[in-house]
């Protein structure tokens, strides 16, 4: 006997099935609502609407819980690597040593991009934002590589190819934007080391790969790897539902992540901290502006659609700041400003009443600055981290027998039937 809810309207009563998740979340299944009742639901921004069932990531916004395939993100940040976490998200379980070795070899074997792709980069205006370049270049991959997914092997090849190449493409956009020669991936370097080397190695000064920096990058990407049905993942699922190729679906996710209210917040946080620094460190003015409803200014890196408590990822990011900066002998004044902002905001009734806490973006920019990533590349770093999650969610939607092309409905509030009027009568 499945649970049901009763919907009563006038003298009609409808029974709707209830779905209960493995963590006890409850949903009213409205798959037949319009057919049975003539009603649709309205939920602008989908804050109360489940788009799918999923086995990938569990978030509890009230308790500040985040788990990938059941494993707490804290344990993965402590013990795993980004490559291993990507495998977990995409394949549904942690790899054996042999599987991880084979995955590593495939990632390295496919980390080069077609030389002709360099021509694309050369023709972007110098002021182009790296997220716009990345979205275009990922889409362009379909022109060079098949996005086959007819068999498990083809799908695995396509997925691994994209995971391998996105690092190379990101580093290329950075090097070319600076007028430097691009650095090729090296077969002797693992995933994160290779990216750092492609970003920062130069013919005049070889890049010294430091283990603290590699670990910080591993943790940064593990924490960004998936986050259930957020804006960009929903874009990937929505676009993917039309059965476009993987590259096009991921390109739409990159475009959505670019937004300052979503993945673009990590860049916006550092720009906000720099502005406060330029204002003589007047973080109290920032707090007052954030509270002023007539002022569009928001405290970037604070608040979340789901977390109404401290984002568990922000806790780990903050701890990473406390470990990495001293290890690299870096004193970043923006970290002090961020700490002061958090301390004041956390005691302020406005932030308490609105359940506004630091989210992943509040401290992540400090870590990226310490690694040497330029601010305009911060959201590209988020995109590389989120790629395994986008792929896992896209793959799950393909495999869901109930999944079909997304086509939400609407409530029309426009004019009733209106006749065309010839231009001379208007
Ligand atoms: C990410 O979905 C995901 O999982 C996203 C993400 C992921 O991993 O994919 O976690 C990554 O996108 C993190 C969020 C990064 N964005 C920012 O840090 C931008 C700053 N934050 C806000 O813009 C805001 O908090 C949102 C967009 C994140 C969430 O906003 P909500 O939940 O839609 O809430 P809202 O915009 O309706 O605001 C509710 C109230 C409003 O005040 P009232 O009009 O009710 O009086 O809270 C206020 C807002 O003004 N508010 C803020 C605020 N965030 C919300 N006020 C000041 N500063 C803020 N940051």
The hetero compounds bound to this protein are: s-citryldethia Coenzyme A
SS strand fraction: 5-15%
Mean pLDDT: 95
Number of strands: 6
Principal-axis shape: globular
Terminal CA distance: 62 Å
Radius of gyration based on Cα positions = 23 Å
Order of strands side by side in the largest beta sheet? 1-2-3
Helix-strand pattern, N to C? EEEHEEEHHHHHHHHHHHHHHHHH
Structural class call reads mainly alpha
By CATH reckoning, the class of the domain at 4-60 would read Mainly Beta
Number of helices: 18
Low-confidence blocks of residues: none
CATH topology label of the domain at 4-60 = Rubrerythrin, domain 2
**From the 3D coordinates, which CATH architecture of the domain at 4-60 would you assign?**
Single Sheet
Biggest beta-sheet profile: 3 strands, antiparallel
Helix % is: 40-55%
Describe the structure.
The protein has 426 residues and is mainly alpha-helical. The protein has a domain at 4-60: Rubrerythrin, domain 2. It has helices at residues 33-37, 73-79, 82-91, 97-109, 117-122, 130-144, 152-177, 191-200, 211-224, 231-240, 246-257, 265-278, 283-291, 312-327, 333-347, 349-353, 360-371, 378-399; strands at residues 4-9, 12-20, 26-28, 57-60, 65-68, 71-72. It has a three-stranded antiparallel sheet with strand order 1-2-3. Strand 2 and strand 3 form a beta hairpin. The longest helix is centred in the middle third of the chain and has 26 residues, at 152-177. The chain is globular, with a radius of gyration of 23 Å. It starts with a strand and ends in a 27-residue tail after the last helix. It binds s-citryldethia Coenzyme A (SDX). S-citryldethia Coenzyme A is lined by residues 227, 230-231, 261-263, 265, 290, 293, 298-306, 354, 356, 359-361.
């Amino acid at each position: 006997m499945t649970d049901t809810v009763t919907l009563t309207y006038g003298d009609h009563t409808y029974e709707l099935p209830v779905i209960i998740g493995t963590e006890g979340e409850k949903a009213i299944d409205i798959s037949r609502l319009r057919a049975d009742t003539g009603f649709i639901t309205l939920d602008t921004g989908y804050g109360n609407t489940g788009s799918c069932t999923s086995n990938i990531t569990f978030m509890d916004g009230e308790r500040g819980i985040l788990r990938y395939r059941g494993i707490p993100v804290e344990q993965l940040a402590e013990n795993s690597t980004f490559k291993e976490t990507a495998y977990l998200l995409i394949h549904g379980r942690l790899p054996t040593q042999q599987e991880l070795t084979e995955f590593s070899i495939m990632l390295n074997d496919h980390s080069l991009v077609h030389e002709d792709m360099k021509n694309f980069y050369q023709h972007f205006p110098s002021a182009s934002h790296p997220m716009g370049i990345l979205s275009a270049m990922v889409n362009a991959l379909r022109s060079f590589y098949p996005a086959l997914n007819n068999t498990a092997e083809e799908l695995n090849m396509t997925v691994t190819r994209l995971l391998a190449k996105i690092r190379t493409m990101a580093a290329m956009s950075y090097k070319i934007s600076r007028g430097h020669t691009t650095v090729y991936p090296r077969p002797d370097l693992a995933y994160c080391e290779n990216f750092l080397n492609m970003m920062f190695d130069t013919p005049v000064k070889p890049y010294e790969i430091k283990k603290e920096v590699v670990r910080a990058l591993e943790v940064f990407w593990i924490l960004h790897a998936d986050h259930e049905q957020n804006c960009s993942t929903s874009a990937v699922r929505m676009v993917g539902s039309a059965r476009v190729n993987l590259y096009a679906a991921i390109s739409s996710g990159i475009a959505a992540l670019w937004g300052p209210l979503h993945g673009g917040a990590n860049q916006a946080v550092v720009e906000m901290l720099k502005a406060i620094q330029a204002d003589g460190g007047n973080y109290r003015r920032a707090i007052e502006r954030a509270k002023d409803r007539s002022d569009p200014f928001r405290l970037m890196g604070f608040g979340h659609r789901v977390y109404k408590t401290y984002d568990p990822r922000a806790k780990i990011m903050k701890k990473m700041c406390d470990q990495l900066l001293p290890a690299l002998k870096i004193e970043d004044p923006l970290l002090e400003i961020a700490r002061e902002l958090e301390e004041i905001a956390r005691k302020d009734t406005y932030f308490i009443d609105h359940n506004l806490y630091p989210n992943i973006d509040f401290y992540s920019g400090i870590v990226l600055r310490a690694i040497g990533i330029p601010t305009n590349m911060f959201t590209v770093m988020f995109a590389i981290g989120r790629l395994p999650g986008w792929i896992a969610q896209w793959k799950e939607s393909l495999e869901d027998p109930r999944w079909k092309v997304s086509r939400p409905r609407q409530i029309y509030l426009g004019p009733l039937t209106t006749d065309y009027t010839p231009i001379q009568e208007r």
